[in-house]
């Protein structure tokens, strides 16, 4: 798989009018550095924002465009920006870019940072201007070493060109930007855990309220946005609200375009910038090319390991938050995974829950103890040693760890695929339940939480 696979040959022509995120990409997959980026209209939006727009107008424009977070939660970006304090006496504010992309099957932000680092920097520069933040951090997944190298070089290029640092573009506005690599924890994708980690603390989520806009990094007002979210900002400022809204397909409640992809045993696994509202079938058949010869589609996840499984019959759902919600799960990151007919769902779920269990921060009891319990049960079922009632216990855990039951959204995301797998493939779980006569008595096989 390559990060520059954008669809079948001769099918897609990327342009600034239709592909605001990816039209500048090079065919050879190399990074676009400052001179080439500026030759392709780079930083024109930043110059417009600094010269012609009041700070509040930038916020309102992003709000009117309907830009939503692209990290998975989908919260309206302009609304989030509007939560930052209006008090001009608060002169220390921070902008954080969440680049801790650790969702399994997701690699969209990596492509943007490795190949278009200046697009992210321009997005952060305009956002900083709007939010009156004087310092920014790109909190980067530690394993993304190439992205770190490219981002650091791009930051230095921008500094040398007067696009970062003091008195940017003669405006009197100062903005410093730093690349901060994390230590490799999935939980840092949660914004307050990210803030704790940036401060040098254990990466546990914080209680909210107060929200980061009021009390964030080092106790100061802070805004946290995802990489892809920030990369949308320059095009919105440059080309306007009406154009941006027009990119989405009819029926979509989400505006603009989205980086979407497909992994698994498909003929053309890859990543594509597509309008919100395309169907899962278009993504799967027209772009991913369907399943490889000899394999059939058994199930698919629409947006990372933390989203529920869907069946082939759900492929006609539109790819936007509300469209995917209609078939019972979430859009997530928008990078789908195909499950072929050779995969045992119990084994797949055991593997997933092991990951989520290991990545729990351990702060709250349902997540800390419930996820290892699910792994223990799934391992027994996988080995044909499950006991009567184990499936009901797993479904009980899905309820106990659901939305609103835990301190953050880690556990609800972890159990969503488990609940959907049992719903659609219960017979595979039942096959792992040992006959009563052969089953080990319950007291002889205690479940040791955390084992």
UniProtKB/TrEMBL annotation:
Its cofactor is [4Fe-4S] cluster; FMN. One of its GO terms (molecular function) is quinone binding. Pfam families: Complex1_51K (PF01512), NADH_4Fe-4S (PF10589). It catalyses: a quinone + NADH + 5 H(+)(in) = a quinol + NAD(+) + 4 H(+)(out). Keywords: 4Fe-4S, Flavoprotein, FMN, Iron, Iron-sulfur, Metal-binding, NAD, Quinone, Translocase. InterPro entries: NADH-UbQ_OxRdtase_51kDa_CS, NADH-UbQ_OxRdtase_suF, Nuo51_FMN-bd, Nuo51_FMN-bd_sf, Nuop51_4Fe4S-bd, Nuop51_4Fe4S-bd_sf. Residues 346-391 form the NADH-ubiquinone oxidoreductase 51kDa subunit iron-sulphur binding domain. It is an enzyme of class 7 (translocase). It comes from the Bacteria. Composed of 13 different subunits. Subunits NuoCD, E, F, and G constitute the peripheral sector of the complex. This is NADH-quinone oxidoreductase subunit F. It comes from Pseudomonas frederiksbergensis.
């Amino acid at each position: 798989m390559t990060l520059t696979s954008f669809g079948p040959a001769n099918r897609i022509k990327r342009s600034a009018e239709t592909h605001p995120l990816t039209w500048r990409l090079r065919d050879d997959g190399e990074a676009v550095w400052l001179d080439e980026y500026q030759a392709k209209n780079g930083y024109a939006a930043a110059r417009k924002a600094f010269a012609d727009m009041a700070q509040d107008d930038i916020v309102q424009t992003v709000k009117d465009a309907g830009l939503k977070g692209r990290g998975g939660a989908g919260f309206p970006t302009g609304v989030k920006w509007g939560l930052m304090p209006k008090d001009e006496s608060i002169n220390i504010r921070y902008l954080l870019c969440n680049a801790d992309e650790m969702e399994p099957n997701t690699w969209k932000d990596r492509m943007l940072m490795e190949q278009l680092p200046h697009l992210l920097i321009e997005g952060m520069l305009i956002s900083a201007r709007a939010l009156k933040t004087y310092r920014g951090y790109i909190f980067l997944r530690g394993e993304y070493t190439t992205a770190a190298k490219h981002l650091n070089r791009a930051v230095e290029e921008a500094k040398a060109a007067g696009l970062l640092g003091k008195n940017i573009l003669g405006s009197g506005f100062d903005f410093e930007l730093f690349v901060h690599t994390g230590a490799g924890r999935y939980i840092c994708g949660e914004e307050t855990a990210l803030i704790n980690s940036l401060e040098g603390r254990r990466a546990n989520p914080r209680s909210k309220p107060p929200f980061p806009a009021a009390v964030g990094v080092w106790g100061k007002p802070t805004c946290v946005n995802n990489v892809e979210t920030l990369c949308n900002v320059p095009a919105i400022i440059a080309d306007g609200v009406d154009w941006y809204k027009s990119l989405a397909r009819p029926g979509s409640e989400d505006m603009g375009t989205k980086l979407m992809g497909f992994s698994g045993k498909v003929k053309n696994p890859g990543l594509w910038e597509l309008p919100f509202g395309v169907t899962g079938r278009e993504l799967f058949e027209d772009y991913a090319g369907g399943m490889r010869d000899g394999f059939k589609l058994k199930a698919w996840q629409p947006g990372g390991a933390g989203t529920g499984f869907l069946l082939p019959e759900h492929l006609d759902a539109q790819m936007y938050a509300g469209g995917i919600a209609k078939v019972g799960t979430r859009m997530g990151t928008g990078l789908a995974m195909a499950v072929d007919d050779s995969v045992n769902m119990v084994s797949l779920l055991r593997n997933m829950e092991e990951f989520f269990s290991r990545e729990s921060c351990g702060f709250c009891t349902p997540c800390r103890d419930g996820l290892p319990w699910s792994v223990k049960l799934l391992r027994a079922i996988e080995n044909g040693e499950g006991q009567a009632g184990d499936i009901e216990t797993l479904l009980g855990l899905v309820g106990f760890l659901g939305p609103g039951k835990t301190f953050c959204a880690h556990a609800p995301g972890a159990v969503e695929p488990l609940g959907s797998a049992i719903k659609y493939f219960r017979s595979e779980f039942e096959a792992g339940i040992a006959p009563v006569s052969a089953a080990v008595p319950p007291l002889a096989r205690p479940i040791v939480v955390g084992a």
